[in-house]
Each structure stands twice: as structure tokens, then as C-alpha cells.
Amino acid sequence: MRLIAANWKMHKTVKETEEYIREFLKFVEHPESREILLCPPFTSLYVAGKLLEGSGVKLGAQNCYYEKQGAFTGEVSLPMLKEVGCEYVIIGHSERRYLFGENDELINKKLIACLEEGIRPILCVGEKLEDRETGMTFKVVETQVRLALSGLEEHTDGVDIAYEPVWAIGTGIPAMPEDAVSVHGFIKQLLNDINPKNKGKTRVLYGGSVKPENAGEYMKHSEIDGLLVGGASLNPETFAKIVYSF
Ligand code: PEP
């Protein structure tokens, strides 16, 4: 099933989360026809989980730590996320990689922990502008995917991937659908090389300046299994338009 995910980033207090979800649920119909996922900040997860109960809309976190508990000040573990109702967690978002210094090794540990805990990770990969301009897009994406999945070759079907070119995130400059399609095709081929049993079980989402006006253009293509939406997910009506754009 196709997956449309909202990454709220560091937006919305608990009160704003309540207002958003009450409004958003008015637009939700046939939640069984597509997977709809909200990823609010940590402080809003508990209340979001309560409000989403029975709605068919799923809950995810934007990050996690790989240890279950311990002296890791400021971190949040997977058992904590599971208890408040998270079924997904975004891992290796470019803001985590480039603003907070997350490297492929840490991302790999987080993915291993997610699979052990039974929370489905959405692994974010994507090239920077200079990579694209120097023809390195496929190489960069391949390296990120291979390192993130190292040791998980038999379990790739437990992971979804979001292809998010860094130059398209929050810039208002989306990738051309044909360009996204070619990278998605490449990632799918790579997944089959890594694990011939994967057979399409890993969804590959597109992310980067998606809005209601362009969402349908991506979703026309069978290579694109869903969308990860940042800025345009912050308004419930706008996000609902994206969810129902196909
Ligand atoms: C994101 O944060 O994952 C994202 C794709 O952001 P935006 O939609 O704002 O480009």
C-alpha cells in the first residue's frame, strides 16, 4: 500500500497538535486505501497517539536512539516510542545528517535497533546539490543505502526508504518527477541486488518540496510508492489534499 507521511519537524506544541489532528481527521476517508502517517515532535507523540486511536491514521517519530535505556541525556528510545503508539520512525533525515552530524554508522545502528524493536524505519537518503552537479547522485545514494543496510541484507523488507534530494528539501524546488523516477528505479534495483528476496517490499517514497499542486505528478508513477512531506504537511487541509492527490 502506498504511504503518505507528514514530517512536522520542530513545529507544533501539544495544543497545536490537538487542533491539527481534530481538523485533519475531518478530511480522512477510506484510511484503508492508503497508509497515512503523522510524525510530530516527541513532545506531541503521546497526545497524538491518543487522538489518532481508531482513526486508521498512523503515528511515527522523527528520530530515535538505538539503546533501549541508559545514561544518554536528551535521547529517546524505541520502547518509549512504541509505548506511545509509534509504528514508524524516520531515520537519517538530511537535517539529522547535516545539522546534527549523524553519520552512516549511527544510522545503521538505529536501523538495526528499529528492526529488533519492531518499529518500521523510513530511511532517508539523497544527494546534495554539489553531488548532483558533479554527476554523483547515484553513487551517493548507493553508498548511503548500502551502509545503512549493512548487516541487514536479509531484512531489507522491514525498511522503507525516502529519496529526498537535499537541494529539494524546504527550498520550493522539487525534483522533476522523471528525475525522481530514475533514482527510485535505481534504489529498487539496488535493493534487489542487496536482497533478491526483497521483491518490492521496501517502499521508496519521494520527499522534497511536495505540495498539493505537484503531488499527483509523482504518484502517477509506479516507481514512487509514496511521499514524505515537510512544510506542506503543517496545514491539515493542505496535507489532506496531498494524501488524496491520487
Ligand atoms: C522533509 O522534511 O522531509 C521534506 C521533504 O521537507 P519539505 O517537504 O518541506 O521539502
UniProtKB/TrEMBL annotation:
<comment type="pathway">
    <text>Carbohydrate biosynthesis; gluconeogenesis.</text>
</comment>
<feature type="binding site">
    <location>
        <begin position="230"/>
        <end position="231"/>
    </location>
    <ligand>
        <name>substrate</name>
    </ligand>
</feature>
<dbReference type="InterPro" id="IPR013785">
    <property type="entry name" value="Aldolase_TIM"/>
</dbReference>
<keyword id="KW-0413">Isomerase</keyword>
<dbReference type="GO" id="GO:0019563">
    <property type="term" value="P:glycerol catabolic process"/>
</dbReference>
<dbReference type="GO" id="GO:0005829">
    <property type="term" value="C:cytosol"/>
</dbReference>
<comment type="subunit">
    <text>Homodimer.</text>
</comment>
<keyword id="KW-0312">Gluconeogenesis</keyword>
<comment type="pathway">
    <text>Carbohydrate degradation; glycolysis; D-glyceraldehyde 3-phosphate from glycerone phosphate: step 1/1.</text>
</comment>
<dbReference type="GO" id="GO:0046166">
    <property type="term" value="P:glyceraldehyde-3-phosphate biosynthetic process"/>
</dbReference>
<feature type="binding site">
    <location>
        <begin position="7"/>
        <end position="9"/>
    </location>
    <ligand>
        <name>substrate</name>
    </ligand>
</feature>
<comment type="function">
    <text>Involved in the gluconeogenesis. Catalyzes stereospecifically the conversion of dihydroxyacetone phosphate (DHAP) to D-glyceraldehyde-3-phosphate (G3P).</text>
</comment>
<keyword id="KW-0963">Cytoplasm</keyword>
<dbReference type="InterPro" id="IPR022896">
    <property type="entry name" value="TrioseP_Isoase_bac/euk"/>
</dbReference>
<dbReference type="GO" id="GO:0006096">
    <property type="term" value="P:glycolytic process"/>
</dbReference>
<comment type="similarity">
    <text>Belongs to the triosephosphate isomerase family.</text>
</comment>
<feature type="binding site">
    <location>
        <position position="170"/>
    </location>
    <ligand>
        <name>substrate</name>
    </ligand>
</feature>
<dbReference type="Pfam" id="PF00121">
    <property type="entry name" value="TIM"/>
</dbReference>
<keyword id="KW-0324">Glycolysis</keyword>
<feature type="active site" description="Electrophile">
    <location>
        <position position="93"/>
    </location>
</feature>
<dbReference type="InterPro" id="IPR000652">
    <property type="entry name" value="Triosephosphate_isomerase"/>
</dbReference>
<protein>
    <recommendedName>
        <fullName>Triosephosphate isomerase</fullName>
        <ecNumber>5.3.1.1</ecNumber>
    </recommendedName>
</protein>
<feature type="active site" description="Proton acceptor">
    <location>
        <position position="164"/>
    </location>
</feature>
<dbReference type="GO" id="GO:0004807">
    <property type="term" value="F:triose-phosphate isomerase activity"/>
</dbReference>
<feature type="binding site">
    <location>
        <position position="209"/>
    </location>
    <ligand>
        <name>substrate</name>
    </ligand>
</feature>
<dbReference type="GO" id="GO:0006094">
    <property type="term" value="P:gluconeogenesis"/>
</dbReference>
<dbReference type="InterPro" id="IPR035990">
    <property type="entry name" value="TIM_sf"/>
</dbReference>
<dbReference type="InterPro" id="IPR020861">
    <property type="entry name" value="Triosephosphate_isomerase_AS"/>
</dbReference>
